[in-house]
Amino acid sequence: PLPDAVVIVLYGATGDLASRMVLPALDEVRRRGLVPEHWAVIGCSTEDLDDARFRDHVAEAVRAGGAGEDNTDAGAWIERVRYAGGGFTEDDAGELPQVLTEVSQQVGDAAGTEPLLVHFLAVPPGAFASITRGLGRHGLAEGSRVVFEKPYGTSLESFEELDRDVKEVLSEEQIFRIDHFLGKEGVQTLYVLRFANQLFGSEWDRSSVEQVQIDVPEDLDVTNRIRFYEETGAALDMIVTHLFQVAGQVAMEPPADLRDPDSVNDARERVLQAFRQLDPAQDVVLGQFEGYRQIDGAAPDSTTDTFAAVRLWVDTERWRGVPFLLRTGKRMATKAQRVTLVLRPPFGPLAEEMDVPNTVQIDISGDGEVRLGITVKTPGPELTYSSGTAVLELDDVPGGEPLSPYASLIHDVLTGDRSLFTTADGLRAAFTAFAPLQGKDRPVPAVYAPGSWGPAEARELPAPHRWMLGE
Ligand code: BG6
């Protein structure tokens, strides 16, 4: 349930992430009536602003984020916004303590109860530890919930170090680590589809599924984030984070209780722990699009990967021998986000004739879609077959009104539901499985043409099938 009152402190409040994602999502949550009656937001950053100027910034971010000019009562929530300058670190808490005391008092008086305190760290990961220590040092941690953006660690070692620092101040239950893919409607539908439908539930294993593809090609460029990208690359940016978590969502064993966050998190953790370490020699293709090294800010001999495709093995009884094919890249032919279960051929009288496999596809972009690739008789006089696709758009589901991933996750922070957040044990397992790609055996990225489907070497990974998206 929602608390009666909440105060949200947004660190990095004037930064890109806050403006593009967090503030518009907060507005979406508000418009949908998913906030407590009493709430306030304090923006915190190093910039020298006053309340009025920060409110302008919020209004602009909300407008640009899609709410538009007709968001008539945005004014009402602008009143709830305050600004605390001077930054916030371990050594110097800036203006925050003062502003927070005032705001908490106001909100608390109106609600007749002490507000829940949420710290939202929309800051570069380098600042996570210092801000968290600051929360401890300045007495702001107790009873609060703390939201961390991605990436929470960039290797097993850096994850362990960060988590050790954070755990000196916070307990795991207070920590909400965002992986916005888990907030996508299509990803949330995955386990409902499976556990609420015998049709899928009974087929969801190696006896019916031949392979799983999780395919996230992007046509985006990286020019405007080249510094981040040079240090990160496609595999670290997408595979060990978003695509591993989605793979966990597909592959988990049934949680004891789908409404109990601990039970869902346990199930996802356990399956992540069963991910076999990637084998760079056999199961990994990295790529770099032609022209990447000429981007201003890229090293002339950069080996950063802008494309990554891996064959992941999940060592559970359910999935033994079923490859999970994960692919993503920048400047590819198109933008899409699709999970596909490729089903085994049928038994029986038509078995020999079927050459297009049945598929269960979940489109996880936008509002999400469930698509079934099935074979039917080609209408007409002859007994011949065609494969077609039945599509259910999730925003057509009666009574449904999709939420954006960030809005969905912010709502879960407010209600205290951690089931769609990554856990320490889950991330530890993910970084462990991924570690061989960060060592001496990491393959050299192969060059691919911008606008293509990546290096030729990646075509063979799904054999005997092909990538379901693509040529
Ligand atoms: C981000 C990655 O986390 O996710 C980006 O850093 C990627 O590289 C993005 O483009 C994809 O997000 P979305 O919202 O398009 O699914």
TrEMBL record:
Instruction: State which pathway it belongs to.
Output: Carbohydrate degradation; pentose phosphate pathway; D-ribulose 5-phosphate from D-glucose 6-phosphate (oxidative stage): step 1/3
Where is NADP(+) annotated to bind? 150
Q: Which reaction does it catalyse?
A: D-glucose 6-phosphate + NADP(+) = 6-phospho-D-glucono-1,5-lactone + NADPH + H(+)
SUPFAM superfamilies attached to this UniProt entry: Glyceraldehyde-3-phosphate dehydrogenase-like, C-terminal domain, NAD(P)-binding Rossmann-fold domains
- InterPro entries for this protein: G6P_DH, G6P_DH_AS, G6P_DH_C, G6P_DH_NAD-bd, NAD(P)-bd_dom_sf
The UniProt keyword set, sorted, is: Carbohydrate metabolism, Glucose metabolism, NADP, Oxidoreductase
Domain spans labelled Glucose-6-phosphate dehydrogenase C-terminal: 192-464
Q: Where is the active site?
A: 242 (proton acceptor)
Answer yes or no on keyword Manganese: no
The residues forming the signal peptide are none
What's a Pfam family this protein contains?
G6PD_C
Gene3D superfamilies xrefs? Dihydrodipicolinate Reductase, domain 2, NAD(P)-binding Rossmann-like Domain
Glucose-6-phosphate dehydrogenase NAD-binding domain sequence ranges: 9-188
* Record EC number: 1.1.1.49
Q: Which residues bind substrate?
A: 180, 184, 218, 237, 330, 335
Q: Which HAMAP family match?
A: G6PD (MF_00966)
The Swiss-Prot or TrEMBL record describes its family as follows:
Belongs to the glucose-6-phosphate dehydrogenase family.
Functional summary from the UniProt entry = Catalyzes the oxidation of glucose 6-phosphate to 6-phosphogluconolactone.
Q: What is this protein called?
A: Glucose-6-phosphate 1-dehydrogenase
Q: What is the lineage of its organism?
A: Bacteria, Bacillati, Actinomycetota, Actinomycetes, Micrococcales
